[in-house]
């Protein structure tokens, strides 16, 4: 990595970005090249994330060969894919060959399917085999994100011999800080740390130094495996196949990268948009529009339920127009309550605190939570409304808030669990759909209570 001691602060990074953008706008490439030459890898990445795809490709070509490789590895897969389209085939082939196998797969997942065979053909047979092994696993599995480049050892080897094996493969290994220990059939029987190897006598056997291994199956969900790795504090976790044979390794930095990617997707979908997969400022306008328009259309269709409910109770509104004043309050409160429950449970699912079999427990807990919230808000709503209007309107508002909060919290809580049961992303079932559902249901509850209390 770049070792130039240039600290990255918000001000220096912003000034560099402005300088490069101005130089590119003037087509003053020497000035842009000079500005980039004085920056660290991290600062250059920050600058490229703010440029349009065309400007990004131009700026990238101004980097030295070694700097270009380091910067490309530090970019997000989405931005790498955009950059690939702006470079010549020879440049792309060289960059692709310099990536680690797992990083190549991240990039290939962002590129059109027709591009992958062309890039793979440019690799050496050994690198092609390593990459193909990772590509063979399904997209959401940890096998797709593991590194097939690792150093392993045997229980009957000495510490000195293991260290020698490590030095021989140092330039190809993903990590050397945690080494899997395998038997003759490549089955993982333990792990040994570099610290223990260095501290041991040269003739000490690995069998006496190794610890129990925590492994993950290559077919396991990537997010779940990454969370296990980070929460357990392991620097690396061996990845095994169905017969417990070692096929790869998951390092802590890759685990953090997976979790960051998954959490970005969840946050986007909870907000009713498709994940961009690349920095906001470097994303083309058409892609941002495409990421939002489908959800808006779906929600617009769903909102017709609210319109239909209002039309059904139009006569009720005509008899007592004051009821219309409270519609925004009630549907807003219901939507917010449902979203709070959905966000909490979705997070608990991601952390493994809640499982599909806990559906009934989640339902009863959110029912009680919604009831408590409804009692508090309902009492407040009754008091204020009764003072401003009259006690009957206060009863309607108080009872409606009680019912709406209870229903919204219950539905919002169980929706993510139901989504996990039917193998759908819980984030998709969250805020946008829950808001639409609770709006329509809340209005029905409101007008039914109003008719019963006011006799209209």
From TrEMBL:
<feature type="transmembrane region" description="Helical">
    <location>
        <begin position="319"/>
        <end position="337"/>
    </location>
</feature>
<keyword id="KW-0472">Membrane</keyword>
<comment type="similarity">
    <text>Belongs to the SLC41A transporter family.</text>
</comment>
<protein>
    <recommendedName>
        <fullName>Magnesium transporter MgtE</fullName>
    </recommendedName>
</protein>
<keyword id="KW-1003">Cell membrane</keyword>
<keyword id="KW-0479">Metal-binding</keyword>
<keyword id="KW-0813">Transport</keyword>
<dbReference type="InterPro" id="IPR006668">
    <property type="entry name" value="Mg_transptr_MgtE_intracell_dom"/>
</dbReference>
<dbReference type="GO" id="GO:0005886">
    <property type="term" value="C:plasma membrane"/>
</dbReference>
<keyword id="KW-0460">Magnesium</keyword>
<dbReference type="Pfam" id="PF00571">
    <property type="entry name" value="CBS"/>
</dbReference>
<dbReference type="Pfam" id="PF01769">
    <property type="entry name" value="MgtE"/>
</dbReference>
<keyword id="KW-1133">Transmembrane helix</keyword>
<dbReference type="InterPro" id="IPR046342">
    <property type="entry name" value="CBS_dom_sf"/>
</dbReference>
<keyword id="KW-0812">Transmembrane</keyword>
<keyword id="KW-0129">CBS domain</keyword>
<feature type="transmembrane region" description="Helical">
    <location>
        <begin position="367"/>
        <end position="389"/>
    </location>
</feature>
<dbReference type="GO" id="GO:0046872">
    <property type="term" value="F:metal ion binding"/>
</dbReference>
<dbReference type="GO" id="GO:0015095">
    <property type="term" value="F:magnesium ion transmembrane transporter activity"/>
</dbReference>
<feature type="domain" description="CBS">
    <location>
        <begin position="209"/>
        <end position="265"/>
    </location>
</feature>
<feature type="domain" description="CBS">
    <location>
        <begin position="146"/>
        <end position="207"/>
    </location>
</feature>
<dbReference type="InterPro" id="IPR006667">
    <property type="entry name" value="SLC41_membr_dom"/>
</dbReference>
<dbReference type="InterPro" id="IPR006669">
    <property type="entry name" value="MgtE_transporter"/>
</dbReference>
<dbReference type="InterPro" id="IPR000644">
    <property type="entry name" value="CBS_dom"/>
</dbReference>
<feature type="transmembrane region" description="Helical">
    <location>
        <begin position="293"/>
        <end position="313"/>
    </location>
</feature>
<dbReference type="InterPro" id="IPR038076">
    <property type="entry name" value="MgtE_N_sf"/>
</dbReference>
<dbReference type="Pfam" id="PF03448">
    <property type="entry name" value="MgtE_N"/>
</dbReference>
<feature type="transmembrane region" description="Helical">
    <location>
        <begin position="433"/>
        <end position="454"/>
    </location>
</feature>
<feature type="transmembrane region" description="Helical">
    <location>
        <begin position="395"/>
        <end position="421"/>
    </location>
</feature>
<dbReference type="InterPro" id="IPR036739">
    <property type="entry name" value="SLC41_membr_dom_sf"/>
</dbReference>
<comment type="function">
    <text>Acts as a magnesium transporter.</text>
</comment>
<comment type="subunit">
    <text>Homodimer.</text>
</comment>
């Amino acid at each position: 990595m770049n070792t130039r001691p240039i600290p990255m602060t918000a001000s220096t990074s912003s000034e560099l970005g402005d300088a490069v953008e101005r130089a590119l706008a003037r087509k003053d490439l020497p000035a842009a090249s000079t500005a980039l030459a004085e920056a660290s890898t991290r600062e250059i990445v920050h600058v490229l994330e703010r440029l349009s795809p065309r400007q990004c490709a131009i700026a990238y070509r101004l980097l030295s060969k070694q700097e270009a490789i380091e910067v490309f590895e530090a970019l997000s897969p989405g931005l790498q894919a955009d950059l690939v389209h702006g470079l010549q085939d020879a440049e792309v082939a060289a960059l692709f060959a310099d990536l680690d196998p797992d990083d190549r797969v991240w990039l290939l997942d962002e590129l059109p399917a027709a591009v992958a065979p062309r890039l793979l053909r440019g690799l050496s047979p050994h690198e092609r085999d390593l990459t193909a092994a990772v590509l063979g696993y399904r997209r959401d599995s940890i096998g797709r994100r593991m590194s097939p480049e690792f150093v392993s050892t045997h229980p009957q080897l000495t510490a000195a011999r293991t260290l020698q094996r490590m030095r021989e493969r140092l330039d190809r290994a993903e990590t050397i800080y945690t080494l899997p220990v395998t038997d003759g059939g490549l089955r993982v029987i333990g792990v040994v740390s570099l610290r223990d190897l260095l501290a041991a006598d040269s003739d000490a056997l690995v069998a006496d130094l190794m610890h129990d291994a925590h492994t993950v199956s290559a077919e396991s969900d990537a997010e779940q495996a990454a969370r296990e790795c980070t929460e357990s504090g392991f620097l690396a976790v061996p990845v095994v196949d169905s017969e417990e044979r070692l096929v790869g390794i998951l390092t802590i930095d890759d685990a953090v990268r997976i979790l960051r990617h998954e959490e970005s997707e969840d946050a986007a979908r909870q907000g009713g948009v498709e994940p961009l997969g690349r920095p906001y400022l470097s994303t083309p306008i058409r892609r941002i529009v495409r990421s939002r328009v489908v959800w808006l259309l779906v929600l617009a269709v769903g909102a017709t339920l609210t319109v239909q409910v209002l039309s059904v109770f139009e006569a009720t509104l005509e008899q007592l127009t004051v009821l219309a004043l409270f519609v925004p309050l009630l549907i807003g409160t219901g939507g917010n309550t449902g979203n709070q429950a959905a966000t909490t449970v979705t997070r608990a699912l991601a952390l493994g605190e809640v499982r599909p079999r806990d559906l009934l427990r989640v339902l009863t807990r959110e029912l009680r939570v919604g009831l408590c919230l409804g009692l508090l808000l309902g009492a407040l709503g009754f008091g204020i409304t009764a003072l401003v209007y009259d006690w009957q309107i206060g009863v309607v508002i108080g009872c409606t808030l009680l019912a709406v909060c209870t229903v919204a919290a219950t539905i919002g809580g169980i929706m993510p669990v139901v989504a996990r049961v039917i193998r759908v992303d819980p984030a998709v079932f969250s805020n946008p759909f829950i808001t639409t559902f609770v709006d329509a249901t809340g209005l029905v509850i409101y007008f039914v209570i109003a008719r019963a209390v006011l006799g209209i």
